[in-house]
Amino acid sequence: MRLPYFTYHPDPIGTGSIEKSNKVCESCEQLRGYIYTGSFYSKQIVNHICPWCIDSGFAAKKFDGSFVAQLDSDPILDSEETKASVLGSFLAKLGVSLSNKGDQARKSFSEELFSRTPGFSSYQEEVWLSH
User: How far is CA 101 from CA 80, 87, 95, 105, in A?
Assistant: First the structure.
């Protein structure tokens, strides 16, 4: 079975975020041969998610969670529009502009990054909004 391709995390096996496993996915309840090993931020404790449930967004929706911590854990960012706006500001600092693509593109980008892309292990959060 071929793994899904993640635009913003193209080698999740190489980074250790996805590995071969004989565990059943808690999202789709199927044995797929691979499991996500990174963090999942949700009120529910979820330990085993397959790459296909990440790629489809099913796991994030089912468990109301995110694979990236900071934007979803900040209480000020309570809507997808606000998250997309903050994300657009952050990307602008990196020299990436989504402004010519409009709000819908920013929301789509935000949804793909936070709900359909495996996270990665790091000693700090991906974005520090308070700095």
Answer: 16, 14, 15, 6
Per residue in 33-59, pLDDT (tens digit) is 999 999 899 999 999 999 999 999 999
Amino acid (1-letter code) at residue 37? T
pTM beyond cutoff 0.85: no
Q: What is the DSSP secondary-structure string of the chain?
A: -PPPP-TTSS-TTTTTSEEE--PBPTTT--B-SEEE-S--B-SS------HHHHHHSHHHHHTT-BSSHHHHH-TT--SHHHHHHHHHHHHHHTT---GGGHHHHHHHHHHHHHHSS-----SS-S--TT-
